[in-house]
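I would like you to sit down with the record closing this message with an eye to the fold:
=====
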Amino acid sequence: MRYTYAFLMLSAGKPLQWVADQLGHVGVMKIDEVYGRWKKRHNLPDKHLDLDALFRCARSIPPMITASAQTAQQRIDSISG
């Protein structure tokens, strides 16, 4: 989750120092080393990620209900009414 968070924040154009602070780093050297390498390796564009659009899309995905969750819900429904 740390890497995903850092990658999304950097992709959204957040300052390196801000991201380093969020991750508990003293300086930006490690952040630049790791994520700068990813950007070069994967030829990532300089265009910034629209986090609002990303989160809107994520919220539109319906939740996944597992079989055990369905069973639990059925039990609750049978008890409550």
About this structure: The helical segments are 2-11, 16-23, 29-41, 51-60, 67-80.
